[in-house]
Design a protein that fits this description.
12 helices, about 45% helix, TIM Barrel
Length: about 290
């Protein structure tokens, strides 16, 4: 009887592992993904080795990527598209400058369509430090306008937080003001976990507070012992392997699945990305959500 029970447990575990594998790289029995990689992680390798730098993603069985629109790190737009296609990499989302999206919207839309993107967003809101109420209101107005134009073209606009948005404001922060003043249909959000933890915010609480606004996520971890601030910047060596830093990923990803995050992209800005990326994917493939 005992051996039969052990066999059942073994078979169940095997089936769960197979199911996770079918779901894609960086997924586990409880974390379904899908997981991709932000191409910015390989910016230095692309500048040095060209398209060949993307072989590492193919070798790791990565399927989805997030790209840039204004720069392809030494490649032309056409060369980047060809490089992705040849390796079976599917671009889902892209980042671009706020001014570019606002002043060259048609060019941005054409590029997004060229790559077949579902999402196009901004990773750094234009402002003079420190961010304040007036600047936040201006940013919100511009985001609504960009979002309206992209929505008309069938593309969802999003904003990627970068840590400097969390200055105290009334009963919350300027990030709350940005959420309040942007149209929920036109402006979605991509949480960068490191840039949420670094300024002292709780990713789980923030995800739960705005469950209908988050659609994408940057998986990134902050080195233990690092004390953050509201600057939006830290040493690149503070970007560590997922699961070895300050972020509580089992709790974070559980909430992400509950609210329906669409895609997760690992962004590793560290100088040791080639060593760290496989380890981060391995961590995700074994994670147990709680």
């Amino acid at each position: 009887m005992k051996s039969s029970k052990n066999l059942l447990v073994s078979v169940t575990a095997t089936l769960l592992a197979v199911a996770a594998s079918a779901q894609g790289v960086g997924t586990s029995a409880t974390f379904k993904g899908p997981v991709g990689v932000q191409i910015y992680s390989l910016r230095n390798q692309l500048k040095q080795d060209g398209a060949k730098a993307l072989d590492v993603l193919k070798d790791l069985n990565v399927k989805y990527v997030e790209i840039g629109i204004e720069s392809h790190y030494g490649l032309t737009q056409e060369q980047m598209k060809q490089a992705l296609d040849e390796r079976g990499l599917i671009p889902i989302a892209a980042h671009a400058g706020q001014g570019f999206l606002l002043n060259k919207t048609d060019e941005a839309i054409a590029a997004a369509r060229f790559f077949g993107l579902k999402y196009l967003g901004v990773a750094w809101a234009s402002h003079k430090k420190p961010l304040d109420e007036a600047q936040t209101l201006k940013i919100a107005a511009e985001f609504n306008e960009i979002g309206k134009r992209l929505k008309a073209a069938g593309i969802q606009f999003f904003y990627h937080n970068h840590g400097f948005e969390f200055y105290p404001y009334k009963d919350g922060t300027l990030f709350d003001l940005l959420m309040e003043k942007t149209d929920p249909d036109l402006v979605k959000f991509e949480m960068d976990v490191l840039w949420t933890v670094f300024p002292g915010q709780d990713p789980v609480k923030l995800l739960k507070k705005y469950p209908d606004r988050w659609v994408l996520m940057h998986l990134k971890d902050l080195k233990k012992g690092v004390v953050g601030n509201l600057s939006g910047g830290t040493d690149l060596t503070n970007d560590v392997v997922l699961g070895t830093g300050q972020a509580d990923y089992p709790a974070i990803l559980k909430v992400c699945q509950e609210i329906g995050i669409k895609y997760y992209f690992i962004e590793d800005e560290s100088p040791t990305v080639l060593e760290q990326l496989p380890k981060s994917l391995d961590y995700l493939s074994q994670i147990e959500l709680r």
